[in-house]
Amino acid sequence: MRVRKHDLHDLIQKKLEAAGLSEEHADGVAESLAFADARGIHSHGAVRVDYYAERIAKGGTTLAPNFRFNKTGPSSGVFEADNGVGHVAARKAMDEAIGLAQETGVGIVGVHEMGHSGALAYFVKQAADKDMVAISVCQSDPMVVPFGGAEPYFGTNPIAFAAPRMDGEPIIFDMATTVQAWGKILDARSKGADIPPTWAVDANGEPTTNPHQVNALLPVAGPKGYGLMMMVDILSGILLGLPFGKRVSSMYTDLTKGRNLGQLHIVINPAFFTSLKEFKQNIAQMVDELHATKAAPGFSQVLYPGELAEIVETDYAEAGIPIVKDVYDYLISDTVHYDQYDHAGLFAEQD
Length: 351
Ligand code: NAI
Fold this sequence. Notes:
Ribosomal Protein S8, Chain: A, domain 1; alpha+beta; two-stranded antiparallel sheet; Ureidoglycolate dehydrogenase; 37% helix; ureidoglycolate dehydrogenase activity; 7-stranded mixed sheet
């Protein structure tokens, strides 16, 4: 099933409004999810609507949040999200960070007590579209073993980066700090397929190829990814006085309560460090040089980190965005949600 981006946006918005979200917030979430699907980040697109709708309908998302921005220093601030939808809170917080960076060269804004915010690429792009460099990090549910551990501690804690480029779209790199997203485990289960032993561990902390025995995910590149996910939790959790590590709320434990998550946006104004024109030209030159690098056997061309999403976005703009039939059928149905996520297990399965 192929859908145009604006049609997907409308379907998502209608469903979220039916669940009880305001028009403004439903539009904000729909924009972020349609952006993700349009760039091939299907794990953070329309597939999430059923879950969000259930949480909204059950009271775990504040419908009319008291969003407040507290400027805490010349370049810093905290955006109180009041457990409203994370996508909208993080977007507004990024606007504040951009404003600070435009004035002072740097803007660092923490988002305090928010809901799930989806694909972080969306927020860093906001800054790069205004000629800023941005990094955004956020907490997610504890489902990853620490390096050498047998039980989960950190979340899949993602890191996104964007920079403006001369005569082209900003470059955007956006990754979870795990080898694979948990959605890929579910996918393997549904297909009856094995998974590589590098993705996840069983209840003893042993690598497993059986997706049904997965008890936790593995950090990317062993101790290095483990270090990065710690860094993310410190920056978006401890720094903001929020629960951290295994105390971070689970997506499915209780859909009647807010998640109290944290996110940190760091925005840097290149014009305060070098010539903006030169900066953007050099980003473009770096991309050109990467493209011109001799490709290894099996590769047709070297891409810059994150370029795959750009390529996919161009293809989908032409051909439409592929949406799984079940997800599309749900979006066009009268069902608000399927009542299937509350107190589901770590990997979104019922206990
Ligand atoms: P991924 O593994 O699909 O891609 C990671 C990055 O590598 C992307 O920038 C992608 O464009 C780039 N990439 C992949 N293959 C490439 C290639 N051949 N050449 C050049 N670049 C390439 O992404 P992952 O780690 O599964 O994350 C997916 C999304 O999940 C992200 O948007 C992330 O922000 C989001 N996320 C959100 C969480 C939340 O709680 N809000 C938690 C975890 C992830």
